[in-house]
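Dear H.,

Thanks for agreeing to be a second pair of eyes. The structure we're designing against is below in token form, covering all 486 positions.
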């Protein structure tokens, strides 16, 4: 990497700050989507309970259908962060925290791109790429891993490129990752591909160096076990992928749908055309890394970020090599233009003005709008009715209302914790009971779980089944209906 002059460094930093403000503002403005995931509710509730009790759960106490079954809060640290933000500033705090974490991932990406590319090119690339991450910028634990995954990938591939040993303090990121979200095993995979990239470059010529990498790889799983639940998160992850039938019915675990996610599909195709057309010499290890990231995204839509966030990091040096006019080195050889000179000479006033203005504008916007989760997932009005009328028996609820029920202290029939609970045929039965031929199956569920009331979308077929059973409609609005057992 070329030596960057202080003036050039300041311009790159100021441009990066502008990019962060743009992306952070877009996340805050799009607060309805940020708060639109039903799991946000129960993550905040679990975090609040952990803070108030000082204890981590070991059995389920939030559903009536699986009450007392083993359940661990493996993402406890993220939940504590979300709950802390909610306690400090309500949903405004959750949105602000989400924006800050997402912006941190953008910062890591821009910083790595700007190590090799013209700052303006790196900035445009970062904005375009991170815009594709919008579907996963949600107030959920996985978000906290985005800057970690980006930084971890950058440091390991940078070490492999330089033919150096990995920094063993990076294992702390695996530990942090494991306590934030269950996707930490991706860190093992990233480290493995970085090792393959090193092996491709040096083969077996430096065995002491290879040994250090092997030791690092071996320590990754051990670092992940520095967790209140020890090895449980690893076991749960393996079990979930192997035997959990619920995963086939949950959108985030479904394969990427090209019809529904056509923008992502087009961008992936454009990226592949660019990679092939540019004829960059990536080597077989990085090529395999890209193919694996594509596989992850196509298999589970929730992993869209692994391609758009991580692949640009590993191809940045090759872009600079293939297109020298867009490289950082070429830019540094040119004289600074008027805009660059002004930006660097007035760096501190401009940086301060942009930072203060952005924070003030964001705070004003949130305070003025007082955003809250959308009613499609919050179901605030029907839940308020249920609480006011003391409907405290076993409920049959729509999946997406489960998080809000937990948040309000009502035990669920089903909710978003299907990674550990609602196993076997439970989830398929829940889904199939809502089909046109599901009346008999639904009746069996009502009897088995001794249900006394329901909370379902107004167009759910099971409302009709309940009427056939003699249940009475107690509440309805434009979106939901509540039926009670007579």
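And this is the sequence the design step returned. I haven't edited it by hand at all.
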């Amino acid at each position: 990497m070329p030596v960057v002059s202080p003036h050039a460094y300041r311009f790159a930093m100021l441009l990066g700050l502008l990019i962060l403000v743009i992306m952070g503002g877009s996340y805050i403005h799009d607060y309805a989507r940020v708060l639109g995931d039903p799991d946000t509710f129960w993550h905040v509730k679990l975090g609040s309970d952990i803070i108030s009790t000082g204890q981590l759960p070991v059995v389920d106490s939030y559903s009536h259908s699986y009450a007392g079954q083993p359940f661990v809060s493996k993402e406890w640290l993220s939940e504590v962060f979300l709950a802390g933000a909610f306690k400090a500033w309500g949903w405004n705090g959750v949105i602000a925290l989400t924006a800050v974490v997402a912006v941190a991932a953008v910062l890591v990406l821009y910083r790595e791109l700007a190590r090799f590319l013209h700052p303006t090119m790196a900035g445009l690339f970062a904005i375009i790429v991170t815009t594709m991450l919008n579907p996963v910028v949600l107030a959920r634990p996985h978000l906290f891993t985005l800057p970690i995954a980006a930084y971890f990938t950058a440091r390991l591939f940078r070490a492999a490129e330089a033919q150096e040993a990995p920094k063993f303090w990076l294992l702390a990121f695996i530990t942090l990752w494991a306590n934030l979200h269950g996707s930490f095993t991706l860190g093992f995979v990233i480290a493995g591909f970085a090792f393959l990239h090193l092996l491709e470059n040096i083969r077996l010529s430096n065995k002491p160096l290879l040994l250090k990498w092997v030791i690092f790889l071996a320590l990754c799983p051990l670092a992940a076990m520095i967790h209140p639940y020890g090895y449980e998160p690893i076991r749960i992850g393996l079990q979930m992928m192997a035997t959990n039938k619920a995963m086939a019915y949950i959108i985030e675990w479904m394969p990427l749908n090209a019809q529904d996610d056509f923008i992502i599909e087009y961008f992936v195709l454009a990226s592949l055309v660019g990679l092939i057309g540019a004829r960059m010499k990536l080597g077989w290890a990085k090529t395999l890394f890209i193919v694996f990231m594509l596989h992850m995204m196509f298999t589970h839509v929730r992993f869209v970020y692994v391609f758009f966030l991580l692949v640009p990091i590993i191809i940045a040096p090759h872009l600079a090599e293939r297109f020298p006019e867009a490289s950082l080195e070429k830019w540094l050889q040119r004289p600074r233009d008027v805009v660059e000179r002004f930006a660097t000479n007035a760096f501190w006033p401009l940086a301060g003005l942009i930072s203060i203005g952005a924070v003030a504008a964001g705070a004003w916007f949130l305070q003025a709008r007082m955003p809250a989760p959308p009613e499609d997932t919050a179901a605030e009005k029907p839940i308020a009715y249920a609480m006011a009328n003391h409907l405290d028996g076993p409920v049959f609820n729509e999946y997406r209302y489960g998080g809000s029920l937990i948040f309000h202290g009502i035990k669920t029939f089903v909710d978003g914790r299907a990674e550990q609970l609602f196993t076997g045929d439970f989830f398929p039965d829940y889904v199939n009971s809502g089909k046109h031929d599901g009346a008999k199956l639904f009746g069996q569920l009502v009897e088995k779980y001794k249900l006394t009331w329901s909370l379902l979308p107004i167009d759910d077929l099971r409302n009709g089944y309940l009427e056939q059973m003699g249940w009475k409609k107690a509440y309805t609005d434009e979106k939901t209906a509540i039926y009670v057992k007579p």
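Two observations from my side: The chain has 22 helices and four strands. Residues 196 and 436 are 52 Å apart (CA to CA).

Warmly,
E.
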